[in-house]
Amino acid sequence: METFPFKKVLIANRGEIAVRVIRACREMGIIPVAVFSDADKKALHVRLAEEAYPLGASSPSESYLNIEKILNIAKKCRAEALHPGYGFLAENPELVKHCEKEGIHFIGPSSRVVKIMGKKTASRAAMLNAGIPIVPGTIEPLLDEKELVYQAEKIGFPVLLKATSGGGGKGLRLVNRKSELISSLKLVRSEAMSSFNDESVYMEKYIEEPHHIEIQILADHFGRVIHLGERECSIQRRYQKVLEETPSPFLDEDTRQKMGQIAVRAAQSVEYRNAGTVEFVVDKNKNFYFLEMNTRLQVEHPVTEMVTGIDLVKCQIEIAAGLPLRCSQEEVRPRGSSLQCRIHAEDPDLDFMPSPGEIIHLRPPSGGLGIRNDTGIYEGFIVPLEYDPLLSKLISWGETREEAILRMLRALSEYQIYGIKTTIPFFKRILHHPKFFKGDYNTHFIADLEKEMDMNGKQDTQIAILAAGVKTYVDNRSEMKQSRRKLSQWKLRGRSDGFSNRF
Amino acid sequence: METFPFKKVLIANRGEIAVRVIRACREMGIIPVAVFSDADKKALHVRLAEEAYPLGASSPSESYLNIEKILNIAKKCRAEALHPGYGFLAENPELVKHCEKEGIHFIGPSSRVVKIMGKKTASRAAMLNAGIPIVPGTIEPLLDEKELVYQAEKIGFPVLLKATSGGGGKGLRLVNRKSELISSLKLVRSEAMSSFNDESVYMEKYIEEPHHIEIQILADHFGRVIHLGERECSIQRRYQKVLEETPSPFLDEDTRQKMGQIAVRAAQSVEYRNAGTVEFVVDKNKNFYFLEMNTRLQVEHPVTEMVTGIDLVKCQIEIAAGLPLRCSQEEVRPRGSSLQCRIHAEDPDLDFMPSPGEIIHLRPPSGGLGIRNDTGIYEGFIVPLEYDPLLSKLISWGETREEAILRMLRALSEYQIYGIKTTIPFFKRILHHPKFFKGDYNTHFIADLEKEMDMNGKQDTQIAILAAGVKTYVDNRSEMKQSRRKLSQWKLRGRSDGFSNRF
Amino acid sequence: MNISLWFDNEEFRLGLNRMEENKFQVKLKDRTFNLSVEFVNDHEILLNVDGRIHNAIVCSNTTSHTVFMNGRSFKLEKKSASQILGGIGEKQVRKDVKTSMPGRIVDILTREGENVEEGQAVLILEAMKMQNEIKSPRAGILTHLKFKPGDLVDTGVLLFTVE
Amino acid sequence: MNISLWFDNEEFRLGLNRMEENKFQVKLKDRTFNLSVEFVNDHEILLNVDGRIHNAIVCSNTTSHTVFMNGRSFKLEKKSASQILGGIGEKQVRKDVKTSMPGRIVDILTREGENVEEGQAVLILEAMKMQNEIKSPRAGILTHLKFKPGDLVDTGVLLFTVE
């Protein structure tokens, strides 16, 4: 067991991704340091860390988005490196700059690259220069409503309005006609402001029947860049990824190779280093266009790990420590098929309303070959209102896509998260759908599915009534017992009172 | 989703292996049917099954060993096939015969093969005939004490006394000198009688510095036999496997291939079909000798699944249904390294005394790449006294052996099974041991380890005292609150009593 | 023992007979079920219905049971909605919209007193980092909208009424 | 608040001061610890000792705490063994061997009244399908062996005494 260049890594995040990074650190003999807000005092990432320090109030701006507080803790506890996870500060060039200044290794690319890729308009311009195909649209942010209308008519409806600093499906609106343009722009600006503190918005041509497919890359300090195949992310609800899989049932081997090579070239063109993801939109004829590059770990990274066997978080840490890549392009040999379901604290029967609250009963699936559950919760944990609703990522692997799907269905059938509403029943619907099973879907799949009647769960009503009936019976009996006990206690007291009266 | 030849499979077992088979059935669209004894009314395998039927009293002979009861249930619920798991009736030729008679598919080989391989003496004779190397010793069971002494002196001490129907480390004794022969024979006969209902015993030469290495094979109805590499099972305590891994850090590629070929030949020589395991003892010069063949799934089958990606339980069911093997020998391409820890309800600080009882708190490790936990327990479950002490099998996979070990250590550090004693701390000792880490061990490893002082856990005493101190403080305060509440209730009652006195 | 439970405003009458410690015969509508029941703890029940296994969590309070099963929850009222409303059973002529989660009001899109269409967005509520449009459940006049952007609201709070 | 706990017959004196709702200062031997304490539930405690995280389960009864931590359990007595024995603190001149688990006596290897060596097998107890030799903890005379093969024994039962 050789000692690693970093002895201590601070994880500037929460939830399942903080837990994921903590586990990688432990497996590398690195001390994982957690930070936590008031709402997260008892969170799983705190419990699994080796050290943990408070950030204060629960609002993101006062805790996980607070660069100063986080860097002070890193310095105080002498962490040599900082892992940002995804979301929060993961793509914030200010944090990276501060790390660079303080001599703390940021586990990610340089601030220059984070800045370019963080602005969608800047990254589109950079890719255009490097000869990478991009989606038709504006290169600069939209100035005003006048330009909005002009560009939309020039590009042609439908168009997408996108926050320049957006990501994760936030700050995004499809506009079908001119009359919706201005109200949509307002909505996107407002969401962009509140989520990314940057209200600039640009426009893209909307690709019909699109697939959202991304390529995972790894790049080290020595200019070596490899790709680890694709992830099919077209199962989206309101531009948010819901379920991801690899390999894509839509791609052919030729397109896959081309996309991998383009992704590598994209990373090389900006002297990228770290794990990273190049996202493409692919039209029905398998033409693909650069969408954006995420300069961090993706939520859906596990499916790539399952088929390649390569631990992406460990690779990130190794790269940040200046080590060369573990393997060459030829040594990357994906095996089988993998899927991931993002289990959210949302009510699928009530328009996916968030459902924070206490988890009163938790039985995660486990065991058997090819099931993995990356989670940030435990029984008794109160899911906070303040942060995103991702509870856990259920991941399956199979020798074939069919096996991976059937395994996922088995695991979902075992998964019990009770006390709050979750999207588990929704995933059963997706996976049981003949179109999904055949691999015949694009980004419209969920919207179409939601138009269909959901017949699942109806047959359970009868059993639920029986269970409640038996519970009523047993409750009544134990109440009767209690009243009898009370009665006898009363009698006893009466008698002892009687005694005392005699004296 | 094509329909499979079997619609319903009865699982004639309990614990983690019943759960394992239930999961495989669900993933194949087969209805899994559980059976359960009184002690197992609420067991995990019952809860995860789709149908479940009672066997009655808890003792094995009245439940999981009762062929008549089990077959009656199979007929009543119309199961087309029966999976025996391991242990109990898994290698009982009577059960197989009854299945053959009743037209129920036994998921395993024919009764003829089960019978040959079930008797160690018969299997040694069969292998000798097929030209497979066997350990020097008696071919027939020992007749009496006279023959015992004669053979021991002929073979030369040390010798092993082995129950003819033995397995799982039961009915086995190492005898170093003549004076121990007769008492050892008595002990082995008694254990053999109580465990296998067969008191016959034979003798083998004891191989010095031995390795216990086995080859996993798969054989279908069409005479096709392939091997899936080896499992190193030398980490044993009193002849019971404790930790298994693949690949073996001891074998070289040449020996590995030879052993695989011999194992295939052994299976072919008896017209074997089913998954199966050929066990070898390997001496320090890498000479190997046939020990026995297990005609069933092994406890340690998951490590092979982890490196090959092949689901052995599904393969068993497919073979029993008459389907050809999924893949050829060339398509078997093991990747990485895998370990399994058998977590037992035993107290490692008290000579591994069994520790049945209620699991009051359970937090299994999960998540991250390469961790699997095959378990038969849940929080609140009362581990019965009547059955074997295996609670769960924790399995890790890594690109390298080092990664698999470090991952296992990470997972063990997260694993909380409280209320009963478990062997989790013992596994931490094994995995931290420099000799284990280097892969430099044989079957004597555990006995040597037990001679070393266990310094683990000492540093936790202080924290435990602090935790108990805080608990005392808080308990006292809430007691004070309660007495205050009682006091005020008393006051209230006193006052209301006062009122009532006035009227 | 006879009991009634209400689900989705429908009454279900059950006739329960305890045959043995852990065995019940239950009549529900035209069917009779033979149940084996194991309580894993106070609220966790393993039901064996004619051989078929069901795991249910039943959380009870004085007015209802919430049954969690197969990833979903079923709320079974011990009394019907009309009983809860004091037996009046009046037709609801107005519709209250309450929060199903705590959150922050981001924007108000329609003013009190205005006419709204069914499905028209009235306000935007943010929770768990997502902005949700809260829509009118029916056409009518918007009343009782007492919040302004920036206000924090708790679960079960009346957001607005459509009359 | 000052308390004493006994572990392995050693006394540990603690001085506890609650600084804030969830912060304690604890003196133990020569050291002072600053603890942040979060109760996940009645018995599950998350301790933060100068930044280091520890998860402990503490199950308490009137005489002791059992602390589960890092896969092990620690039994901390609220009173010392001598206090429990009524303050007598007499030297034990005989040694009782009790069962630590329920099981079945398979065989008796030594008879009452015989001399036994330290480590000599006295009887064989079967539990969880394993046969365990129960050995004499010291040299002496075997007494109070009241079982015969086939007997079932519960936890904490006196198997035999060596005097």
Sequence-ordered SSE layout with sheet pairings:
The complex is a heterotetramer, with two copies of chain A (503 residues) and two copies of chain C (163 residues).
Chain A: E1 8-11, H1 15-27, E2 31-37, H2 44-48, E3 51-56, H3 67-76, E4 81-83, H4 93-102, E5 105-106, H5 111-118, H6 120-129, H7 145-155, E6 159-167, E7 170-175, H8 181-196, E8 201-205, E9 211-219, E10 225-237, E11 240-246, H9 253-269, E12 274-282, E13 288-294, H10 301-308, H11 312-320, E14 337-344, E15 346-347, E16 353-354, E17 357-358, E18 361-363, E19 371-375, E20 382-383, E21 390-398, H12 401-414, E22 416-418, H13 424-432, H14 434-438, H15 445-451, H16 460-502
Parallel strand pairs in A: 1-2, 1-4, 2-3, 4-5
Antiparallel strand pairs in A: 6-7, 6-8, 9-10, 9-12, 10-11, 11-14, 12-13, 14-21, 15-16, 17-20, 18-22, 19-21
Helix pairs in contact in A: 4-5, 5-6, 12-13
Chain C: E1 2-7, E2 10-20, E3 23-28, E4 31-39, E5 44-49, E6 52-60, E7 64-69, E8 72-77, H1 81-84, E9 95-98, E10 103-108, E11 115-116, E12 121-127, E13 130-135, E14 140-143, E15 152-153, E16 158-162
Antiparallel strand pairs in C: 1-2, 2-3, 3-4, 4-5, 5-6, 6-7, 7-8, 9-16, 10-12, 10-15, 11-14, 12-13, 14-16
